[in-house]
Each structure stands twice: as structure tokens, then as C-alpha cells.
Amino acid sequence: MTVKDFSPIDAMGLPALEGRIKEDLAFLCYPGKAWVPQREGVTDVVIIGGGMCGMVAWLGLATGGIQNVRVLDRAETGREGPWLSYARMETLRSPKMLTGPAFGHGALTFQAWYRAQFGAAKWDALDKIPRPMWMAYLQWYRTVLEVPVENGISVDHVEPEGDLLRLSVTGAETPTILTRKLIFATGRDGTGGPNIPDFIKHLPGHLWAHSADEIDFTRLAGKRVAVIGVGASAVDNAAEALEQGAAEVRHLIRRKEMPTINKMMGIGSFGFTAGFADLPDEWRWRFMQYSFATQTPPPHGSTLRVSRHENAYFHFGKATTRIDPQGDGAIIHFADGTFYEADFVILGTGFVIDPMARREFGDTAGDILLWQDVYTPPEDEKSGDLGRFPYLNPDFTFREKQPGTAPWLANVYCFNYGASASLGKVSGDIPGISEGAAWLSRAVAAKLYAEDIEAHWEGMQAYDTPELKGDEWEATPLDAHPEPQKGRVA
């Protein structure tokens, strides 16, 4: 049976799908009944990030009746997340049928959105999701759910104020926001930033860029471009340079061989999603370190997008030791004693997890407990990068290194890539994001309820709406020692 055999939404248009979504949500009593006692001038939850992670986190909270929530994003409307900025792949890596941020609602999936517009036959023919189309889907998701994202607002600093958090912001009507809980739904670089190796420090800024930067690829026409690395972002940036007329693009790769197997994809399952966080430290570390060591290969299509150009080259065993300016370009030195002269360098070196790189925490970042503070791996499993991941509580909140130094960190939630070492792939990647949002919203609700327990107790005692009015029954007296009636058996 194919999808065309049973779906009434195919090619019916988005208005028909949206009507179905509204009806489904109404059947499920969405949004949930508000139950959190309100404090004047205080937001219950602030979510930093209005992209996929932030929106599905908001949906989880709204479903659970947590309604006093603000979603802030520094980007302009329609530019949230990486999809129209530094993400430069033609299609997503994830399989098209994954449910992503649908949060258990079939009509909210990408598949439903696509088929409502184009029909089942085109869906069956679609291979991978085009990147700009994924962004269009997320914009529709925001519109149909009326997610209240506030664009153009940046959170610059967070600090405690009693049992609350005070956020210093720019771009909002007021310079500060008081909130009870703060969720970092900030994507791949949400607990760190781009990885900038030391070997680039002597090169002037106009001669290089990180793959996460805004790059005017038209300026690279006729240039010799060096791309350091061979991960997905490195390959996608190389393809952009080639397609904009670069004279040549050379991948300079430290590894001896191209990674070809995505190990994490081989073990993806609901069991892994649900069970990873409960594993002992040594097993969680082992899975993540092995994934790092084997490296996720670039997508098949992205690699072909580069290699189909005759002026594209892949050089293995070329570990860069330093890069110096030379004339109008750069000279790149390798550990094997060779070198290469380039006009421009692109760092496809990924991201690092390092709370100290986040300005929002300020000096308090040094109080955040990291994996390297907790776990010492075997010699053959050491990883400095993995050691800098935050060692989180089971509810996504940060822990403090020394008890009592920064207890307010227990009100800050890491719902981004930084959570993966502690809790698994549930807070940044498409496959597990809805499971993560359900987990997160339940954790936030539990903590808010416990903090307000006195108010809830008083509310229970004060509740006086009668279930019965008094006219549903009639009292009948019963003699304590009734005389048995003749002819009847008692």
C-alpha cells in the first residue's frame, strides 16, 4: 500500500491541512489549561531561539498548560536557525519521512505539509528534503501554531535575582526580563561557538572565514580556495565556492582516509533515544567518543556536488600546523613539511562546546560542571572536545561544580547540541526533537509545580465548586433494630 491509497489531504492545499490541524488540536484540548500561579512582571519561561528546537519546546509547554512563555530570537523573521544562513547543503541529510518537530501530530509533519501541496506521487518521488523547503515548512509551522516568536531580540546576559533570573536583552521594549526558567534552544553552537584553531591566528580576517560565517562566495571567483576539513559543512562550502567560479578548491584533510560510515545512524532507535540518559557515564562517554573518533562523513550528495568539478581536490594526511600571510593570500604549512598557497581559507572545523565562550553566562560559565570534571576515560577513549560538554541533570538543567556557588543554574535548561553527551540526540537533531521536547516540558512543569506547592495546596482547600447541588438524592432513615417482616427472609 502506498500513501496515495488512504490519505484525503493529498493535493488538497494547505488550508485543508490547517483545518485538520486545528480540529485535531481541539480534540486534544489544546492548549492545556493554565495552572501556573502568575507573578506580576515575571515570565514563567523564556526560550532563547525561535527555530525548530525553540518552537517545539514552546509547543510542549503550551500543550501542558504553561502559557506565560516568551520565545526570543536575534534573527529577523524567517531567518531563524541555520537554514538560510550558514547551512549551505542542497538537501537535508535526514530521511524525508522523519516526524521531526510534529510532537505527535501527524498533520504537523513535513510529509503532511508537502503532500497537501504537491500530492502523494511527488512525495513518493522526492528523495531528500531541499534545505530552503525545510525552512519554508518551519515558517508554516510557526504560522499555523501561532508560535509567539519575538524577532530581533538578543539575550546578552543572565544573572540570578532572588529565586528568579534577570535577563539583559537588546532589541526589546525593556532592557531586562525577569523569568523563572530559561531554556537555551540555540542549536549547534548553543553551548559554545565555532571552532577556530590556533593556526589561523596570524592570518588577517579578510583572508579567511569559518563555515558558519556569512561568506560572499562571488568574491571567490577565480581564486584558489583552501577548505580545511571534510565534514558536511566543509564540503558544502567547497561546493558553493566551486559553483561561484573559484579557480580551484582544495580540501586539506588531517585524516589519512575519508570517513564513510555514520555510526550514529546505525544505532538510532526509540530505545537509544529513551535509554541513553540512564546509561552509566562510561557507556555514554564511549558512544559519544566513538562517534567523534570515527567522524560523521559528509552526505553522499554533497560530496558528489564537489567532486563533479574537475578543479576540486581532496588531499588526505595534510594536518595544518600554521598559516601565514603571503602577498595577497596565505601560505598553509602542513605537519609533513609541505605547504600550499591559497587566496582564501575556509575553516570547515565545526563547533566546540565551551560554556566559557557564551557571553550570556559571564564569569559564571566557570561554575558549570563539565564532563571532564566528573569522568576520567580510559587512555584510548580520551577526548578534550567531549570533556568540555556540560554534565547535565536528567531534566536538561546545568549543574554547578561546587555546591552552593551557583544554585540558580538549576533553572537554566540546555536544550541544544550541548545536551547530547548527557542526554543523547534529543535536543538539536530532527529525529529525536519531539521526544526531547516532551521530556523537557514535563521536567519544567514538574519543577514549577513543586515550587508553587503551597499555592496549589491552598487552591485545593479553597476550591468550593460543588459537584452535587443537593437535590440529587433523598435521605432515608434506617431503624437500628428493625423488626423482621413476616413472610420475608431477611
Write up what this structure looks like.
- By secondary structure, the protein is α/β, with parallel strands linked by helices.
- It contains 15 helices and 17 strands.
- It has helices at residues 14-27, 52-63, 110-118, 120-125, 131-145, 232-243, 263-267, 270-275, 281-294, 300-307, 371-374, 384-387, 420-423, 433-451, 453-462, and strands spanning 43-48, 69-73, 149-151, 154-161, 164-170, 176-184, 192-194, 208-210, 224-228, 248-253, 312-316, 320-326, 329-334, 339-342, 344-347, 351-353, 412-414.
- Strands 1, 2, 3, 4, 5, 6 and 17 form a 7-stranded mixed sheet that branches.
- Helix 2 (52-63) crosses helix 14.
- It is globular and about 115 Å long.
Quick overview:
The chain has helices at residues 14-27, 52-63, 110-118, 120-125, 131-145, 232-243, 263-267, 270-275, 281-294, 300-307, 371-374, 384-387, 420-423, 433-451, 453-462, and strands at residues 43-48, 69-73, 149-151, 154-161, 164-170, 176-184, 192-194, 208-210, 224-228, 248-253, 312-316, 320-326, 329-334, 339-342, 344-347, 351-353, 412-414.
Number of helices: 15
Structural class: alpha/beta
How much of the sequence is in beta strands?
15-25%
Give the overall shape, derived from the CA principal axes: globular
Helix content: 25-40%
Instruction: Give the mean pLDDT.
Output: 94
Low-confidence stretches: none
Number of strands: 17
Nearest-angstrom radius of gyration? 28 Å
Largest sheet geometry: 7 strands, mixed
End-to-end C-alpha gap: 66 Å
